[in-house]
Write a sequence for this structure.
């Protein structure tokens, strides 16, 4: 399978060329354009149809589509939802952890499992982690520029900025150490220890979500 | 202490290198990575009210203003990387004692210990009843970090310049400013999509951002879940 | 008139310098800064659909801003979303833009709104397209980067990613293959283009941003 990441680094897009019979799996909604005979299959992750709406709205769900070229070559353009860059990673019977929103696409041999990691407290702070395993190509994206950092020892990242990390690293969610105002709960940190690679983005969806709060429609109280 | 700007296309960020004894302040939550020997001390400040406000950023109707202070806890150097919320640039302004700067709350990213951040600044209050844009006055000596939605353009004002309020990042105190309408009447101004614009005159510098975050928020917000 | 586009491909904005008597039309609200002595007024965009109906259905401002210089002056214009701005010389031909992509044009370029097609009323992308016809300069913007495709045959695009196209291309709006597919495949509607011509696409769209950000909004 041939691929090209276009328009780097800020508004990158993945273009994939499929030979007849080749397939690519992508996050639902990532399909931007296609050329040639493409067949689309939607897979819903477990769950009965009735439970889906709730799952989608709460962000618990994780949907993937499988695209295949039928009877001729095809090209597919896949775009992340956020501004930022795309990274390709080769999984060789290994594992990679991703912040769930960072998943863009993968070849068929890659399996994805989503789980919630959070801290108990006043607010539901945490993140959905996607555990990707198997053999194949994985494409992930970030909000902002993506930097690869080789950790050897300790490394702290604010929760919203971690994109992906290797399983050789231990991770732990903590709060910022000295907090004068007990109501200030924004600074949730991910502490990494060990040896391995971590990918960090230079913008945070959590910060953007907090910023956009005041522009959201208010629930009408009747 | 050393402040470095990392340029990454539309995603600038700043890295502050700290020596033991150094201190740096930033908009709370702007830190995105740090060496493990950096301590984060959070204070809260709000616009128009003295002291601690309490409550979360997102629960306030107006733009809120919370600060974090950073220090190294041991005898080794450390670093703190700061990121803005939006796609855009980061610029460093070297503030000198003779000239204070007025900065929009949303554009303030960080500042050195020699700078005083005045959130009770009354100068623009009277002009903006109902608007959710806040301004801070930055005075003293040291580096001021501002961020923008989009790119930052610097204008040396000599005469007059009209700037849409949502595009103001920072300007030197001493510039005269007033609210003005664009076009023959207020209705024309509103129909043309320009609500409040500022007319700057005199001598000074103004930094503007190419894109308007409130306009973007107005586009994005209504399509997100109810709060 | 002189124009300058700075900040491409990520955060383009357009600066236009006008001589006395010259004017430029822009999307309402696009002005970021300008010289103090430009005359600004609002202009209605023309079209076959009454303005009131357009506003109700499209939900978007139907007014343009007109900037006219009595003395040499400038106006800087920016789109609502960051990305690439493209200038196109219009030579009496026509060109189609999706509604959010129009930024500015000189007075010789006439703009009219057209229905995008009945199905597009449901897509949330907006029912209206802008047809540009005439002679002069046209400036349009993309959210993100612009990718130009030379279509020869057929090409299918998620409606959110379409910026502009040449009139030699025909299109049809459809779902991705059945209701279930449309609702759960995550894709909205697509425009299936046919023919030979240039198609301008953007690498981001607001719907995608909303989809990505929603799980973080508590």
């Amino acid at each position: 399978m041939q691929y090209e990441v276009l328009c780097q680094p800020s508004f990158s897009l993945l273009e994939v060329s499929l030979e007849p019979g080749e397939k690519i799996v992508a996050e639902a909604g990532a399909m931007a354009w296609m050329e040639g005979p493409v067949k689309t299959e939607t897979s819903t992750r477990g769950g009965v149809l009735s439970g889906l709406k709730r799952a989608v709205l709460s962000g618990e769900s994780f949907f993937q589509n499988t695209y295949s070229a039928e009877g001729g070559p095809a090209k597919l353009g896949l775009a992340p939802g956020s501004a930022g860059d795309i990274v390709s990673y080769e999984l060789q019977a290994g594992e990679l952890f991703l912040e769930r929103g960072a998943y863009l696409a993968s070849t068929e041999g890659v399996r994805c499992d989503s789980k919630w990691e959070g801290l108990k407290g006043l607010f539901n702070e945490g993140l959905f982690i996607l555990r990707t395993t198997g053999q194949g190509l994985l494409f992930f994206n970030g909000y902002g520029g993506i930097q690869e950092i080789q950790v050897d020892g300790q490394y702290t990242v604010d929760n919203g900025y971690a994109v992906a990390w290797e399983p050789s690293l231990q991770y732990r969610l903590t709060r910022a150490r000295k907090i004068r105002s007990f109501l200030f709960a924004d600074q949730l940190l991910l502490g990494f220890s060990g040896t391995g690679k971590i990918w960090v983005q230079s913008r945070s969806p959590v910060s953007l979500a907090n910023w956009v709060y005041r522009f959201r429609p208010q629930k009408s109280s009747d | 202490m050393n402040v470095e700007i990392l340029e990454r296309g539309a995603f600038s960020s700043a890295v502050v290198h700290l020596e033991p004894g150094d201190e740096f302040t930033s908009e709370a939550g702007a830190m995105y990575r740090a060496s493990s020997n950096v301590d984060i001390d959070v204070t809260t400040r709000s616009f128009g009210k003295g002291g601690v406000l309490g409550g979360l950023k997102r629960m306030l109707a107006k733009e809120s203003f919370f600060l974090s202070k950073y220090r190294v806890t041991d005898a080794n150097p450390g670093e703190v990387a700061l990121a803005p919320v939006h796609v855009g640039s980061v610029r460093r302004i070297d503030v000198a004692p003779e000239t204070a700067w007025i900065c929009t709350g949303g554009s303030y990213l960080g500042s050195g210990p020699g700078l005083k951040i005045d959130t009770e600044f009354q100068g623009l209050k009277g002009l903006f009843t109902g608007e959710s844009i806040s301004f801070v006055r930055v005075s003293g000596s040291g580096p001021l970090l501002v961020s923008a939605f989009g790119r930052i353009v610097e204008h040396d004002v000599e005469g007059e310049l009209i700037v849409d309020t949502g595009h103001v990042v920072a300007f030197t105190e001493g510039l005269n400013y007033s609210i003005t309408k664009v076009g023959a009447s207020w209705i024309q101004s509103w129909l043309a999509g320009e609500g409040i614009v500022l007319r700057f005159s005199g001598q000074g510098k103004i930094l503007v951002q190419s894109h308007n975050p409130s306009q973007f928020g107005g586009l994005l917000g209504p399509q997100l879940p109810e709060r | 008139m002189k124009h300058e586009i700075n900040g491409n491909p990520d955060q383009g904005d357009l600066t236009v310098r006008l001589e006395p008597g010259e004017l430029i039309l822009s999307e309402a609200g696009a002005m970021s800064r300008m010289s103090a002595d430009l005359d600004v007024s609002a202009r209605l965009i023309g079209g076959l659909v009454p303005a009131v109906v357009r506003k109700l259905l499209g939900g978007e401002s139907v007014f343009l801003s007109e900037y006219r210089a009595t003395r040499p002056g400038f106006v800087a214009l920016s789109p609502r979303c960051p990305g690439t701005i493209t200038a196109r010389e219009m030579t009496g031909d026509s060109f189609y833009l999706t509604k959010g992509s129009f930024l500015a044009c000189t007075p010789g370029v006439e703009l009219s709104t057209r229905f995008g097609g009945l199905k597009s009323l449901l897509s949330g992308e907006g029912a209206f397209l802008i047809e540009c016809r005439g002679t002069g300069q046209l400036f349009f913007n993309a959210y993100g980067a612009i990718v130009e495709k030379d279509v020869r045959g057929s090409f299918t695009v998620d409606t959110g990613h379409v910026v502009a196209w040449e009139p030699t291309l025909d299109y049809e709006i459809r779902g991705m293959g059945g209701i279930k597919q449309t609702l759960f495949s995550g894709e909205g509607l697509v425009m299936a283009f046919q023919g030979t011509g240039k198609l301008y696409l953007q690498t981001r769209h607001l719907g995608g941003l909303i989809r990505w950000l929603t799980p973080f909004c508590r």
Notes: The longest strand of chain C covers residues 85-98.
